Amino acid sequence: DAGVTQSPTHLIKTRGQQVTLRCSPKSGHDTVSWYQQALGQGPQFIFQYYEEEERQRGNFPDRFSGHQFPNYSSELNVNALLLGDSALYLCASSYGGRYGYTFGSGTRLTVV
Amino acid sequence: AQTVTQSQPEMSVQEAETVTLSCTYDTSESDYYLFWYKQPPSRQMILVIRQEAYKQQNATENRFSVNFQKAAKSFSLKISDSQLGDAAMYFCAYRPYGGSQGNLIFGKGTKLSVKP
């Protein structure tokens, strides 16, 4: 049974560019949450998607947007990249947003 | 706003010994969940143990147990018989109970080293 799959594993982008990160949830899970983990810090909640809609959002600017597809997979888009966006981006899936979150191994984004 | 504090940036333990990681949190809610996650160098967050605030009994998962003190808002993790594979970052996390409040609030983590 595949867990949460994230792609790509690593990514290097230039300031001002746009990036799209992808997440496939664990089989049977319908809710996807995204987190940003800066170096040496705990993950910070970006937003959560359920039934193809953004259900909850953390304290992140509108440059961060997302999407959930009918198969429950999700994308995280970041526009106008800043150096401070360099971080590990983690995707977590669950059933109905309840406890029992399963995390992926993340995408390491470096902005230069 | 809810916050989670881990006051020990780093901890070290001898193999086969016991270590306790500390976590305090702040919330005005009465019902919530608390978690300990392990993040090895592979980066994947792995759930170690979960505690429901309405349960008085402390959660236990094999060598891992918690000391949940609701009034003190304290949630420490005890690792018994430490193994080399326990070396990792450990994060304490809080989540409100019920509805669609799905986000986890994490502490800054404690780096655990295990000495052979």
Task: Walk me through this protein's architecture.
The complex is a heterodimer of chains A (112) and B (116). Helices cover 0% and strands 51% of the residues of chain A. Chain A is built from no helices and 11 strands. Chain A has strands at residues 5-7, 10-13, 19-24, 31-37, 44-50, 53-57, 64-68, 74-78, 87-94, 102-103, 107-111. In chain A, strands 2, 4, 5, 6, 9, 10 and 11 form a 7-stranded mixed sheet that branches. A 4-stranded antiparallel sheet of chain A has the order 1-3-8-7, with no helix packed on it. In chain A, a hairpin with a 6-residue loop joins β4 (31-37) and β5. Chain A starts with a strand and ends with a strand. Chain B is mostly beta strands. Helices cover 0% and strands 52% of the residues of chain B. In chain B, strands 2, 5, 6, 10, 11 and 12 form a 6-stranded mixed sheet that branches. Chain B is globular, with a radius of gyration of 14 Å. The model of chain B has no long low-confidence stretch (mean pLDDT 92). The A-B interface holds A 31, 33, 35, 40-45, 48, 50, 55-56, 58, 88, 90, 92, 94, 97-101, 103-106, 108 and B 4, 33, 35, 37, 42-47, 50, 91, 93, 95, 100-109.
Keyword list:
heterodimer; A: 112 residues; mainly beta; seven-stranded mixed beta sheet; four-stranded antiparallel beta sheet; 11 strands; 0% helix; 51% strand; globular; B: 116 residues; six-stranded mixed beta sheet; 52% strand
Q: What is the secondary structure topology, with strand pairs?
A:
The complex is a heterodimer of chains A (112) and B (116).
Chain A: E1 5-7, E2 10-13, E3 19-24, E4 31-37, E5 44-50, E6 53-57, E7 64-68, E8 74-78, E9 87-94, E10 102-103, E11 107-111
Chain B: E1 3-5, E2 10-14, E3 19-21, E4 24-26, E5 32-39, E6 46-52, E7 60-61, E8 64-69, E9 74-79, E10 88-96, E11 105-106, E12 110-115
Parallel strand pairs in B: 2-12
Antiparallel strand pairs in B: 1-4, 3-9, 5-6, 5-10, 7-8, 8-9, 10-11, 10-12
